[in-house]
Design goal:
The complex is a heterodimer of chains A (about 550) and B (about 150). Chain A is about 35% helix and about 20% strand. Chain A has about 550 residues and is of the alpha+beta class. In chain A, helix 1 packs antiparallel against helix 4, helix 3 packs antiparallel against helix 4 and helix 7 packs across helix 8. Chain B is α/β, with parallel strands linked by helices and about 150 residues long. Chain B has a single domain, classed as 3-Layer(aba) Sandwich (Rossmann fold). The longest helix of chain B has 12 residues. Chain B is globular, with a radius of gyration of 16 Å. The chains are: A alpha+beta (about 550), B alpha/beta (about 150). Bound molecules: protoporphyrin IX containing FE (HEM) and iron/sulfur cluster (SF4). Protoporphyrin IX containing FE binds next to loops of chain A.
Chain lengths: ~550, ~150
């Protein structure tokens, strides 16, 4: 597994030292609120309703078991014993005391973790497919590129004070698990006719009040030229992005105002001046060395004659939680953390330690997090899956929700977030209560329900089969419903169903929508297939009568 | 100097007093101002591309960093210094101590702090980093790793 070198760790320590000085100046009154805000956000620190929230980066969603144990220790030592895995594969702690933050961060540097640029108006943690390197048919494992690009934009002098945040996703697989076209900038690894590797680039996607799908700005940028291209895109954004309007800061507004063609032209014009600069070429030697670091820690094994255990509950769980691996003899196991009443993505320190221990035992000490707020064990031997399930069952981590609609994605909502217009987690709980029969869940199949507590769209409701967006109407909580958003095969923003529905009736509405789907479904059709075939009307009729 | 309407002055790196004109004044009257040895103040919103072909007429360029969150100055510095190889002084004015590392690496060659930092202990700010993860306009003496 890739690990930071001593020099990288030293850098993390220096960054904590720097942040601690900033914090001390704020606490002593020397640094004003505004400047501290700008500085603390660059280090993942938010001021929340009841305390401070700290977001720690999990690069590409990959953790070693030791890193997970360190996060468990942080949860106990500095928080209330739990952490929250987010849709961008990071982890958040909601109850941090300001003066302790530097110590917390220093503890994490020992295992190579940090909060650098997990927030603020700079390049954020880069997201990759959580199944990178594991599935058949991948064009190329995206992680070495993610790491090289992450480094380059780490405290980049020219691009650390952009108009708004800048989120990058990179996908090397056929299906898009990263939702790259709703990122500020998305990169897709592609091969050209000559078989050379490069990226197609999409700029200006994003959710929020004005959801947009990023248009393609370049169809093929050779891998060695990607840094200069990214710099040019950010340079145009830095100079021309809307700084005058709080709600138009993101690059999607600039791309929309200029038009994709003009934006691409400006980027290209700038890029022509830099693409041959040897200093800006991707370091291919380093790339090679990273490829070796990211090599899978397993070799194919022959399990001829192996017969898996027969057990009713195991088979249900296995159907939804176990996928085939490209390496023979192995499986990919997904673990759902959902439980009635707890926030999706929440994990207690005890659960983290159990997962770390099981990761050591069954998954080469590697653990991944996903955008659906689940945990993945990437390297489980087929003949050990049953034993792993038994251990999960003993520890109450055997939820079969993964791959069903009960695996709801929800943001913290009004329970934790001071920007919220409505609650999210209690709605998720009520939906789970309504659909609490396993047979029914299995019959419905995989259907995404995502719930955001306000337009900031932290839970990605626009790209879910059923999206719920919390809002206020006459002082009451209402939910706007969108249907048939998707990113896996193609990218579509969910369509608005109609007027928002009240908190009392929102779960009925969800049930009605699911019923229309079931009644109209033919054989293996997914929700989006049915929606495309029958249109929005039948759903409208059922929900609004 | 009668030709300059609202002169501001600045002490350059050689401790000489130099008169500054605004960007608008320069654009309007650069033929007239070119021989006077004046400097130019560039605000973040000023279009630096407009002076790209006049750089050898300008003695000094002052970039205004007073707005902490406005990062356009870093790109202006980069363009002047690295892309257009401007040889005059690029001074960052109204600078914030927390941002010096970014300014200098982007190509700013000297700086003047905001008044409010007078008396601050520079030790309380960044001591710099033992390595940098990217090449930028100015990499002098840095340990680059990328
Ligand atoms: C409670 C603390 C949180 C606060 C205050 C917060 C705040 C925000 C804000 C203000 C935005 C919009 C930024 C913009 O468009 O410029 C945003 C976007 C986002 N947040 Fe959060 N957030 C929080 C928690 C979370 C959590 C827990 C997750 C993951 C589950 C998350 C994931 C996201 C994502 C994915 C976006 C981007 C949506 C887009 O593409 O436009 N956030 N957040
Ligand atoms: S979507 Fe809104 S309510 Fe939910 S976490 Fe984000 S900012 Fe808070």
């Amino acid at each position: 597994m890739y690990k930071y070198s001593e020099k990288d760790t030293q850098f993390l320590v220096e960054r904590v030292d720097q942040f601690e000085k900033q914090l001390n100046r704020y606490l002593s009154g020397e640094l004003d609120e505004d400047k501290f805000r700008s500085l603390r956000l660059r280090n993942g620190l938010y001021m929340e309703l009841h305390a401070h929230m700290l977001r720690v980066a999990i690069p590409y969603g990959i953790l070693s078991s030791n890193q997970l144990r360190a996060l468990a220790d942080v949860a106990d030592k500095y928080d209330r014993g739990f952490g929250h895995f987010t849709t961008r594969q990071n982890i958040q702690f909601n109850w941090i005391q300001l003066p302790e933050i530097a110590n917390l961060l220093r503890d994490l540097t020992d295992v190579g973790l940090h909060a650098i640029q997990t927030s603020g108006k700079a390049t954020r943690n880069i997201t990759a497919d959580p199944l990178s390197g594991l599935t058949e048919g991948e064009i190329e494992d995206a992680r070495p590129y993610c790491e090289l690009i992450r480094r380059w934009f780490n405290l980049h002098p020219e691009f650390s004070w952009l108009p708004g945040k800048f989120k990058i996703a990179i996908n090397g697989a056929k299906l898009d698990e990263t939702a790259l076209r709703i990122h500020d900038l998305g990169l897709r690894l592609v091969k050209n006719k000559k078989g050379e590797l490069g990226f197609s680039v999409y700029v200006g996607g994003g959710l929020g009040a004005a959801a947009m799908i990023g248009p393609e700005t370049a169809s093929f940028v050779p891998i060695e030229d990607i840094l200069s291209y990214l710099e040019s895109a950010m340079r145009i954004y830095n100079l021309k992005g809307r700084r005058d309007h709080q709600k138009k800061l993101r690059i999607k507004f600039l791309v929309r105002e200029l038009g994709a063609a003009e934006f691409s032209r400006l980027v290209d014009e700038d890029w022509q001046q830099t693409k041959n600069d040897p200093e800006l070429k991707l370091n291919l030697k380093e790339l090679q060395s990273l490829k070796e670091d990211f090599e899978l820690p397993i070799d194919p094994i022959n399990l001829k004659g192996f017969r898996d255990e027969v057990d009713f509950n195991y088979s249900i769980w296995k159907k939804n939680n176990v996928r085939s691996h490209k390496v023979s003899g192995y499986s990919i196991v997904t673990i759902s953390l959902t439980k009635l009443g707890s926030a999706p993505g929440d994990a207690t320190s005890e659960q983290m330690r159990i997962l770390a221990k099981l990761g050591d035992q069954y998954s080469s000490s590697e653990i991944r997090t996903t955008k659906r707020q689940t945990i993945v064990f990437p390297f489980v031997r087929k003949d050990e899956v049953f034993d792993l399930w038994k251990s999960l069952e003993e520890n109450d981590l055997d939820s079969p929700h993964q791959g069903t609609l009960a695996q709801i994605v929800a943001c913290p909502g009004r329970d934790y977030c001071d920007l919220a217009k409505a609650v999210s987690i209690p709605i998720a709980t009520r939906v789970q209560e309504r659909f609490n029969e396993m047979n029914k869940l299995l019959d419905i199949g995989d259907l995404n329900i995502n719930i955001s507590g306000c337009e900031n769209s932290c839970a990605h409701h626009h790209i879910a089969d059923i999206g719920l967006l919390g809002m206020q109407k006459n002082g009451e909580e209402y939910y706007q419903i969108t249907l048939a958003g998707e990113t896996l095969h193609e990218t579509n923003i969910g369509k608005k169903l109609g007027p928002s529905v009240s908190s009392e009736t929102v779960v009925d509405a969800v049930e009605n929508i699911v019923n229309v789907f079931i009644d109209n479904r033919k054989s293996e059709e997914k929700f989006t297939d049915v929606f495309k075939r029958i249109g929005i009307e039948p759903f409208k009729e059922k929900v609004y009568g | 100097m009668v030709e300059i309407e609202n002169p501001t002055t600045l002490i350059n790196k050689d401790y000489e007093s130099i008169e500054l004109v605004t960007f608008a004044e320069w654009i309007e009257g650069f033929e007239r101002l070119a021989n006077l040895g004046v400097g130019l103040i560039l605000e973040p919103g000023d279009d630096v591309y407009l002076i790209q072909n006049q750089l050898d007429l300008i003695d000094l360029i002052a970039l205004d960093f007073s707005n902490f969150d406005d990062g356009r100055g870093y790109t202006q510095a980069y363009l002047l210094s690295k892309r257009w190889k401007y040889v005059g002084e690029i001074i960052g004015i109204n600078a914030h101590l927390d941002q010096l590392q970014f300014m200098i690496r982007s190509g700013v060659t000297s700086y003047q702090l905001l008044e409010s930092y007078k008396g601050s202990n520079e030790e309380d700010y960044s001591n710099g980093f033992s390595l940098c993860y990217q090449a930028a306009a100015n990499n002098n003496g840095l340990n680059l790793q990328y």
